[in-house]
Write a structure and sequence with these properties.
single chain, hpI Integrase, Chain A, three-stranded antiparallel beta sheet, 9% strand
Length: 353
């Protein structure tokens, strides 16, 4: 005589064990009876999955139930393709950095079923990249952040029960301080930059604005009468006011006369929104004998100059738009040559007695 099937009830769901696996039986919105294999043999796991389906039924979200059933047969690569089409939470800069990460993980896991992704698999991949491929801790953390977002969306869309990347912790990064440029290096750099990049560099050097803030700057944010710039779309979601130097004032006056709108700072093609001046900076740095120069160095140079002139750190923090003083101390560290000069002057005075 065949063994009677085990049955458990979870709200509107009847759990029935057939062979090794548990099946969820329920009635859909059209009154049709449905049977769905949960692909698990453990009763507690089956009950958890049944409660998730029950919650969707109570909300009337039958479409998500169908999506989840369909997605069980989908691969990680197929989900990433859908993520690229639908995810709206990343800006252009984030997408630009994340694309290479997504391509790499699709090569690694493209054919793996989405539901088979787990914490051990992700952690193993990241460890190999760190130990064998020699990526930095910062790159490790960027990979992890991108994966957490990808799987977070899979959970939000009802395709996974939990985020397998969430338990993995970021690595503690060693703080890196870019080298501030000297006055002579700034002069040499500006002399070798093409006009469109020189305009951006001047504003960056004398305002300390981030790249996204520079290229998002519009004429409504520029007040020539008060000689100040209002940063309305910052990284931290707050606004701040930055006084213009005479050099910035004259540079922006020249930009205004060109009649380019709505963005203040130019791209190579006048009228378009600029993205970055990395290539121009790198080329000018090499031609002027400085070497590799990044746009972030211009922001750091601004902070270092303020610190050298004795501007209080709390005021520098406001001008840079930092949330914490720790960030300001890192970016506005006193330059080595100033420390060296101060020590020499102190010991010269001691020797004179």
């Amino acid at each position: 005589m065949p063994r009677k099937a085990a049955v458990h009830v979870e709200g509107p769901i009847r759990l029935v064990q057939r062979g090794r696996y548990w099946y969820a039986h329920y009635t859909d919105d059209a009154g049709q009876r449905q049977r769905q294999s949960l692909k698990v043999s453990n009763l507690r796991v089956a009950q958890k999955k049944a409660r998730e389906i029950a919650e969707l039924i109570e909300r009337g979200d039958y479409a998500t139930i169908q999506d989840r059933r369909k997605q069980r047969r989908s691969t990680f690569g197929e989900f990433v393709a859908e993520f690229r089409q639908k995810h709206q939470g990343w800006g252009d800069t984030t997408w630009k950095g994340a694309e290479s990460i997504l391509k790499r993980v699709v090569i690694e896991w493209g054919e793996v079923p989405l539901t088979a992704m787990n914490t051990r698999l992700i952690e193993s991949f990241l460890t190999v990249r760190l130990d064998q491929d020699g990526i930095t801790k910062a790159t490790y953390n960027r990979h992890l952040a991108a994966l957490k977002t990808v799987f977070k969306m899979a959970v939000r869309w009802g395709l996974l029960a939990h985020n397998p990347a969430q338990p993995i912790r970021t690595l503690r990064e060693e703080p890196t301080i870019p080298r501030a440029l000297s006055d002579a290096e700034v002069a040499g750099l500006l002399a070798h930059l093409p006009e469109h990049a020189r305009v951006v560099a001047i504003v960056a050097l004398d305002s300390g604005m981030r790249r996204s803030e520079l290229f998002g700057l519009q004429w409504a944010d520029v007040d020539f009468e008060r000689q100040q710039i209002t940063v309305t779309h910052s990284k931290n979601g707050t606004f701040r006011v930055i006084p213009m130097t005479q050099r910035v004032y004259e540079t922006l006056q020249g930009q205004q006369q060109k009649g380019v709108i709505p963005y203040v700072l130019p791209s190579k093609a006048e009228g378009g929104k600029g993205q970055d001046i990395r290539e121009a900076l790198d080329g000018a740095g090499k031609r002027s004998g400085i070497g590799h120069v990044t746009q972030h160095q211009l922001r750091h140079t601004f902070a270092s100059r303020l610190r050298d002139k004795g501007v209080p750190l709390d005021r520098i923090k406001e001008l840079l738009g930092h949330k914490t003083m720790a960030m300001t101390r890192r970016y506005a560290a006193t330059r080595d040559e100033h420390v060296h000069s101060a020590i020499e002057q102190a010991f010269d005075r001691v020797a004179a007695y």
